[in-house]
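Re: the 812-residue chain
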Amino acid sequence: LQINIFICDTISLIKMQRNVNSKGSYHNLCALAEAGPGAGEPQISKQLKSRLADGTKTSRLIIVANNLPLRAKRSVDNSGWEFEWDEDALIAQAKEGIPSNMEVLYVGSPPVEIAPEEQETVSSLLKRKFSCSPVYLDRDVKDKYYKGCCKQQLWPLFHYVLPVHPTSTRRFDPDLWQGYIKANKTFMEKVVEESATDSDFVWIHDYHLIVLPSFLRKRFNRIRCGIFLHCPFPSSEIFRTFPKREELLRSLLNADLVGFHTFDYARHFLSCCSRMLGLEHETSRGSITLDYYGRSVALKIMPTGIRPQRYLDGFEWDEFRWRRGELAAQFAGKQVLVGVDDMDVFKGIELKLQAFDRFLERHPEWKEKVVLVQITNPPRSSGKDVMEMHSYVTDLARKINERHGTSTSFPMCYLERHVPLHERMAFYSIADCAVVTCTRDGMNLVPYEYVVCRQGPDSDTSSAKEGMLIVSEFVGCSPSLSGAIRVNPWSIEAVADAFHAAIKLPREHRRLRHEKHWKYVSHHTVAYWAQSYVADLVKVTKDHVTMKCYGLGLGLDTFRMVALDANFRRLEERMVHSIFLNSHRRMLFFDYDYVLARFGSESHDSSSLLSSSTLSHQKQASGTGVGSFSLAPSAALLALLSRMSSDPSNAIYLFSGRTKADLTQWFSSVPEVGLVAENGCFYRPIGSKTWIPLAAPHTDLSWMELTKPILQQYVESTDGSCVEVKESALVWDYRDADPDFGSWQAKELLDHLEDVLSNKPVEIVGGSQGFVEIKPQGVSKGQALELLLLGAAAVQGPVSSSSSASSSSSSS
């Protein structure tokens, strides 16, 4: 028996039967069939080919951020610009952790506005002297991108603020979103210009450039790309409110490595992937991964650090020593609490001051023995809420001093100005406790800076080498500071109690807590963080060179890069077409539920096609199933099947999980099409009205009556689930239930059924696909296919067979 089996997309066979206009997802599938892997990727420019390579550098890392890590000022004669490294910039400090064999190039916006006539000169200077490639944005685009979309829409979203007021500036604005898209495209063009091939590594930073991975993946299918979010990631209930939520989520998944500060942020991201896209994560040896169209997307959970040596070296600065001595004399004999925050609604400054006021009310004996130094940096964004916060905080600071101050001392020292590094270090070094009460913050490095400044260099004998931390539960650094007093900043009483506990704690306890913090901060530096992230990025992308990639979709919400194994062999449509036309007897097998049921949809938008979960069931008159969509075939599909079955050379069979009654009703107009029902339990031969069982004769179905009450119990306790009763099988479908709860219930149901039906001739399948099916042993679509082929060969001799499934597999 010689059988040619072709596993192909339904689209190839459809194209053989009729001419259609390509559009929507149909056009995308045609592109997959006709284009080779990596099609459409840009060619290497002559400029990049001529780039001089350093013999010690074997690879290159392109770090992309909103701003370059530079400082700028006009030259003395005002003839141009002068630049220097910003040593406090995180991405500049991260370079210390990059492997020595990697060349590092920075891509980002310059720190100042550069006139168009100066841009070429500045670009040449920055590239030559600093390995920086500046991105220039038009003023209008930059305002919409940064001040508009980033600060008014994405920043509040990631910090759990919803625009509930109808006139709020945080409401989604399509014009601002387009500015965000245009800016990200400009960054993409600069990266492509600088990137020689897709062998370069690209490390993207923060929420300003979330959609950049998708744009890069379109241009370089095998690009090695990672992104690290320095902001919180909200829960799925918050994230799903954003109108462009799927564009953001899919763009993050088009990176190879997605970094978060804490597990909470990663957990929220995984929840969004599960609820919105149906993606489930896997864990293996401490790593978390998601399979996204054949490509493994890894998650990196690691808080950033600081560069301790930067602060330790500062102890030798004259300005630091002078300011430290001045502050020590000013606050002599007092317990000093210090807070350093930007003027922002998420920093919890007003909550900190309210708690301090409450502490002084409850413990008046400390009024002249304690002082809270609150350093407030200028706001990074403007808005009504920021202005109101500024007015409230300054007024509250004044009232605290009026209420609790004396003629010789005031408990509140409020500094509203930019404080240079040496002065900030001086405040840290003399403070007994640092206080961070942010209501939501991605990381916040103030506690780390405080720990280093309290430790001081070994040569500095005046350093206390002890200290206390009061840290909000809602900041990224909180989990790493196990010796800190963690507080809920919204609880004024709890923060007030924390003030009292911190200043009353014995010195020995302070020293032990400080030692624990110093050990962590001195080891988990920014260089350690960068080294670990880059190492994971290299590990995750090591097999990229062998991948065969196909880009599908056009928009951000539909684009995905399908990655296939190196051994994958693309089915040539011309070959199938040739064999199809030259053969005289053909058997065509189609999966109906997951392939043909989608054919003829009124919508051409791939994002609105019925999902697999929706297509899995229809509303039943008997009430045994729920759902609003039907699997009934479209008129176009029935017409096509009729035309195909009219060819005497074609023998067509449709495979489905539906019941005999459903298939008989739906395909009554095409009697020359064979049907296989209930996933291989029954089949109806071509031209016949009689259904033939494929299961073993006298199959024991007594287990069904035992199982029905159990399934009904889970339906009653799981909203959105249903039971489908078939002639030979039972299905508990939970695809419309809450994803997490449905998955938990499915696992419990599997255990329950395995105990009850352990001695019955049944097979229990599913549990992770949105359903649990109980069916007789030895029944499957594959076995049905084999029986049909053997039967046809025995009666008529060898045939050519083409099988269309919902997913291609060489083993089929």
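The longest strand covers residues 59-67.
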